[in-house]
Write a structure and sequence with these properties.
This protein has 263 residues and is of the alpha/beta class. It folds into two domains: 31 residues; 211 residues, TIM Barrel. It contains eight helices and ten strands. Helix 2 runs parallel beside helix 8 and helix 7 packs across helix 8. It is globular.
Length: 263
């Protein structure tokens, strides 16, 4: 092969590389979200179906069917989690767990156990700080830090669902989490089992609160862990009775991930 052709080929190769680089830059620019569109959170773009949930807090599933979703917040420790997972497995019932980033960092094995059992995992902020007391930048950091910790532990079980600490939510704050790729999924009723016996609750009262507002699409909020100074929450003990009572009334336990089903 004649060496006379090498400079020409080198120049041609250089032009090709330049063209490829320019094309890559254009593709990267095209992939950036337009203003007001969902942004990527720690490398994950919000799935398109979640966008239909934006704009307001989801407090019930949009269905006329006799269906109930069971959800559990985890912000403290693992107390009661094994019992909850065992009951859900035995009853063949799905659950959705909203965990904080701190919980995921301190108890990654627990988060992996939730994911391994086939349950979805939502974002409950990083430190469970009251959002009304934070700046917009601090609120965004609470969401993104938690998302990173949850996805590191749970992988694909992490959902584009966010639940505000204490249910403290405003239209502006909902818009903020929507812009980060999350829908605000709250609850229809809280069993108040987190208060424990020290807080004046009993297992039967927790069950009653779940049933008092029973209606199609109800989202029940429960907790796992031990609240400081108040002992273990009561929801692990109440769960079997809640499931039995709901089913005896003709309801089925449904997966909260059905909210993401395309129409």
């Amino acid at each position: 092969m004649s060496t006379a052709f090498l400079p020409v080929r080198a120049r041609a190769a250089g032009r090709l590389l330049h063209a490829l680089a320019a094309a890559a830059a254009l593709l990267a620019a095209a992939s950036l979200p337009a203003a007001g569109q969902p942004r990527t959170v720690v490398g994950r773009a919000a799935p398109a179906p979640v966008e239909k949930l934006y704009g307001a807090a989801v407090r019930a599933m949009p269905t006329a069917q006799k269906e109930v979703a069971l959800t559990f917040n985890a912000a403290w420790d693992e107390e009661g989690l094994d019992t909850v997972l065992t009951v859900l497995r035995q009853q063949k019932a799905p659950g959705t767990f909203f965990v904080t980033g701190h919980f995921a960092e301190r108890h990654p094995d627990a988060v992996r156990a939730i994911a391994a059992a086939g349950h979805g995992i939502g974002n409950h902020s990083h430190s469970h700080a009251p959002f009304g007391e934070l700046t917009a930048a601090e609120r965004a950091q609470e969401v993104t830090l938690a998302d990173r910790a949850i996805r590191q532990a749970a992988g694909p079980a992490a959902l584009p669902f966010f639940r505000f600490p204490y249910g403290d939510t405003t239209a502006g704050q909902i818009a903020e989490v929507n812009a980060l790729g999350f829908a605000d999924v709250e609850w229809t009723t809280d069993t108040n089992g987190y208060r424990g016996t020290a807080g004046g609750m009993t297992t039967q009262q927790a069950v009653k609160r779940a049933l008092d507002v029973l209606a199609p699409g109800e989202i029940v909020q429960m907790h796992v862990g031990s609240l400081d100074g108040q002992g273990p929450v009561l929801d692990a003990q109440a769960l079997p009775q809640i499931i039995d009572a709901v089913r005896s009334r003709g309801y089925r336990i449904t997966d909260l991930r059905t909210l993401l089903a395309t129409q």
